[in-house]
Each structure stands twice: as C-alpha cells, then as structure tokens.
Amino acid sequence: xxxxxxxxxxxxxxxxxxxxxxxxxxxxxxxxxxxxxxxxxxxxxxxxxxxxxxxxxxxxxxxxxxxxxxxxxxxxxxxxxxxxxxxxxxxxxxxxxxxxxxxxxxxxxxxxxxxxxxxxxxxxxxxxxxxxxxxxxxxxxxxxxxxxxxxxxxxxxxxxxxxxxxxxxxxxxxxxxxxxxxxxxxxxxxxxxxxxxxxxxxxxxxxxxxxxxxxxxxxxxxxxxxxxxxxxxxxxxxxxxxxxxxxxxxxxxxxxxxxxxxxxxxxxxxxxxxxxxxxxxxxxxxxxxxxxxxxxxxxxxxxxxxxxxxxxxxxxxxxxxxxxxxxxxxxxxxxxxxxxxxxxxxxxxxxxxxxxxxxxxxxxxxxxxxxxxxxxxxxxxxxxxxxxxxxxxxxxxxxxxxxxxxxxxxxxxxxxxxxxxxxxxxxxxxxxxxxxxxxxxxxxxxxxxxxxxxxxxxxxxxxxxxxxxxxxxxxxxxxxxxxxxxxxxxxxxxxxxxxxxxxxxxxxxxxxxxxxxxxxxxxxxxxxxxxxxxxxxxxxxxxxxxxxxxxxxxx
Length: 555
Known about the structure:
It is built from 18 helices and 24 strands. The protein is an alpha+beta fold. Among the domains are: about 15-140 and about 410-520, GROEL, domain 1; about 215-250 and about 265-370, GroEL (3-Layer(bba) Sandwich). Residues about 1-15, about 540-545 and about 545-555 have low confidence and may be disordered.
C-alpha cells in the first residue's frame, strides 16, 4: 500500500530555479524604471499620494520609493538599497537603483545561458574591486577651508534637485550649518553629526530667500508667564535642568491621615518650603533664564519671576541638548548639584518672537556654537518639505567632503572612465568569468545613458562619441552636461561628485545585484485569503506517485 503525502497547498507556495531569477530581475528592473526619469538636472518630478492622503512632489529617489507599497520581495529589497544609501551618504539614491537594475539586467542573459550564479557574482565582485581602484586614480583632493570650491561641489551635487533653480541659497545654508557643528577629533579627523545638532525648522510664509542659518538655536516655546517674565535678554546666564521644579508626587497612591486641623497647613507649608529651597539653590547662581525638560509649578514660577528670571518648561530632550551645545551649558539632573561651570554664558541674545500665529524662542549670537538651527521660510508646506529634503542631501554631501575631502567627475564621466578601464582589463581575465565581467563594465554606462535620455538629446550619437573619447584615454573628465546634453570637460563646468557618494553607490549596487542573483528559491508561508463565508479548507491528500515535486514540502 502506498503512503499518502499531505501537501498544504493553501499555506505554502514555492518557486525555484531560473523562474525565480527571472522574476527577481524583472521586479528590480521595474523599480529602476519607476525612478529612471528622475536622474539628472533635467529630470521629471513625481507626484505621490502618501498613506495619509497627503501629496508629495519630489524627484528624490528615496522619497519616491519609500511611498511605494510593493509586494514582490526583490522589489522591496531594491527599495531598501535606496534607504541604505540615504542613511550612509545622503546622496545618489536614484543612481544606486538605476545601476543595480542595470547590473541585474545584463546578468539575465547569463542566467538564461545556464551560467551558475556564483560565477556571475565572482566576476561582479572582481569588477567592483577594479572599479574602486580606477575611481581612486581619477579622484582629486580638495581643501575643505576653500569655501568657493566647497560651495561649487555642494551646488554641483544638488544641481539635479528641485531647489537648483534657487541658485546658491541651499548650498550656502548647508555649508554654513555643517561647518558650524563640525568638531575636531585631532589627527586631521573631523566629526559632523548633522542629525543630532542641526535642526531644520520649517515655517510657512515669507520667501525662500528669507531662510538662514542661526548662530544658535530656536524652538517652538514661549516663557511660562509672559506678563511677568522678560522676553528679551542680552548676554543671558542660562541654566538647563532635567528635573521637575514642582512637589514630588509619590510613586504609588499615598494616603495621609491628618489628626489636627493645623496638620493640613503644615503639609502645605512643607510643599512650599521644598519648592522654595529648589528655587533658592537655582537663584544662588544668578541666572537670567531657566529651562527644564519637566514641569514647573505655579509657586516656582512666582519665585523665579520675582527674582527677574525667565523660565521655559517641558522642552524636548533633543532641543535641550542643542541649547547645551550652543551656549556651553551643562544639563543638570538635581538643582543641589549645580556648579558655576554648568551655567551657559556663550549666548549673546535670548528673544521670543511671534511668527505667524505661534511664538518661537531664539537663543542666538552664540560664541563658537556647536549646534545650530536652519530656519526655512517658503510659500507652502509642500515646497518647504521638498526644500528640507534637498537641504538634508546637501548637508550630507558637505559632511562627506569634510570627512573625506576628495572629489570625482560628475555627469557620467566617472562611470564611463570605469567602464572603459574594465573593458580593457576584461581581456586579461581567463575562463568563463570574462563575459560577466565585461557585462558589468557595460552596465556602468547606464548612468550617462540615462542622463542623455533625460536631456532629450540623441542617445546613440552622444554615447558613441563619449565611448570614443574614453576608449582613447584622452581625458577622464569628459562627460555630459545634464542641462544641455553637450559633451564637455566636467572640471571646466564644475560638475563634480563626492568620492564617498560615488564609491558607496558602486558598492551598494553591485553587492545588492549579487545578493539577488544568488536567490534561487522563494518560499511563501502566507495563507491565501479565503472567500467570505467559506469554511476552513481541508488538506488535500494525494498518492505519492501523483504528488507534484514542486509543491512538496522539503524534508
């Protein structure tokens, strides 16, 4: 008697082999095609409806892809690439998807010819190593203290963005902000933390030209008692606290039994004395401004305002950290531990201003601030959101240059140089790895080809002319001007890219392509949705001889 085999067709589906390879490649190409038109200065914008029903108008690769809701696992993996690139270097989010899509596209022919995925991956990894060597050769070092060169580089990197039409404004803001928060670690190293110490404050209204980098910080708060406390202080002494200035409540529910009537007034007096002692400890240091992250009782407000001290309560931890960095104060956990060195004296002005309907506190004119706020003004929220995205990219580029002051040619020149060098080296590679290696060299041409397409010029003619110039090894800096489509020297036009961004793009794209090529099985354990009203499905029982091998659960 034959043993029956139970196949749970409803809860487990499996695909394998070349089917999976082709499906993954098609999904990745589809993702690359979505954002292909957003590469370069003459790129198209995309209008997206987000999950909350809002509208996003952008040409930033990462901003577009994170709004997509895709089901294919390979497509999801491609979207993750863009996010990784954004977190790591902040720019090149579109390039990395286009390059990864092209790497997979050229690998499709080898998969169909039954090449083993490991052979293709070995060739791709060898191509990546050689590409980085070529990139090192053509890279040019720059001086981070030369503002004109730095400004040109940041402007060139964000020239493909929507805000490029506003000239040097965004590049200026980004450079000022990153230079402000940079900290020297010694041995020529410099640390720039743009997430912690640069706050972007968007306020609708006014013109984009009104945007500026404050020499200090601002936050959306007013003083606790506007009538009694001063809203403008010159050279303020600032104390920052991380504790409540109110009577402590018990951790658990506490019952107090009062025997005499006088005990009630004694209890109240104890609370008042406790708050008074806290205020006395603070006032000992003659502060002009007290800021706490926690609550501030009415009685404490009374004592502080009586002493002519302004106070702000319930401030965010991140804002408090920025104020500490800007004015040189130290955040204190208990008022009795206060020291003179904890008082911040680096700020030149504290002022509360009304912008629109809301009050904003400014702590500005700081001496050597290590934190700052970028104030953005603009006509609408959509415009401000796009400007903020572009500003984040610009600050990331400035940070990358400060960390590693090297630049490479933009306009597809770096990719064409790498492609020409790999084509020459492919002749020295033995065995079947030679063909995938050569295909990887061709895949690098996807970036200049896409730039030419988005300019609206004759792609075949332009690419042939570029390939001819790079094959002779005439000038590694010859590329496409993304605005006109003309073939020019990138150094003359000041079209540059940060070395870090370009190297990271190559690494991420090729490593991701190798990972997706190596996938030969997709097993899904998600249950299929049943029609409403249908009962639970029973497992189908088949004879061993009839069971389809594709559907069997592997032992």
